[in-house]
Amino acid sequence: MNVANGSGRTPAFRALAGHSAWSSLVNSGVRGRHDAGTRVLRQGDPGGWVLLCVAGRIKVTYAEPDGRELMLAVRGPGDVLGEFSGRDGGPRSATVRAIESCVVSRLPDERFAETVARFGLDAELNRYILGKTRESSAHVWRMAYRRTPVRLAELLLTIVAAAGPDHRSPATVTLSQEELADALGLARSAITPVLAEWKETGLITSGRGRVEIEDLAGLSAVARSTGD
Q: What residue stretches are annotated with the Cyclic nucleotide-binding domain (predicted)?
């Protein structure tokens, strides 16, 4: 399946930095593998390092004091996580969890900044950070005003797009219905009939803790729809 970055995602930093610089950044850190569901960064913890996603998809969530969580973004290979804390010295602003088995490279803030400067990538990093900020603003608007089918379709397409070109199964989304509903700030009962209708029309198939997108073009049409 050919998956284009048509979901409004910010281009990965790897694409902006180039192969040589990205490889140098990755090799400057310590690699680690995280199983699906593993917490990689925790909201409120102190910073001190950044993570470079080498393989796999990762979700970024914000937790309210009452325990409710909302998905802010989905990141994948070539993305940087945790760079905000290195810039302002503040604690982690969100929690990061592996959607599927993933590999990340962890390196100290200072080493990350030095390597970015050595390759002359300050402008590219600023562009990347600004892009993620714009993406978050658009996400907030969609959460407030889009209908449930449109929001769910956009979420699934975003997860697919985050897989990157080398993923073996980009159309397989390993999140349960409960997790998908939580990501949208909805009850599971709000998305169950939508998924059931999509199964009947052949847009998706599903299993325990998994949604398989069968018709990417059809799901994209749902995401673009604006009718009531």
A: 34-116
User: Is residue 140 classed as helix, strand or coil in its secondary structure?
Assistant: helix
pLDDT at 144 over 80: no
- Does residue 107 register a pLDDT over 80? yes
How is residue 50 written in tokens?
């950044």
pTM > 0.85: yes
CATH of domain 147-224: 1.10.10.10
Residues 6+ apart with CB under 8 A from 48: 85, 86, 108, 109
Strands (E), 172-214: 172-173, 204-207, 210-213
Cα distance between the two ends of the chain: 30
- The percentage of residues in the chain with a pLDDT greater than 90, rounded to a whole number, is 68
Provide the greatest CA pair distance for the chain: 54
- CATH code for residues 13-141: 2.60.120.10
The conformation of residue 108, written as its DSSP 8-state character, comes to E
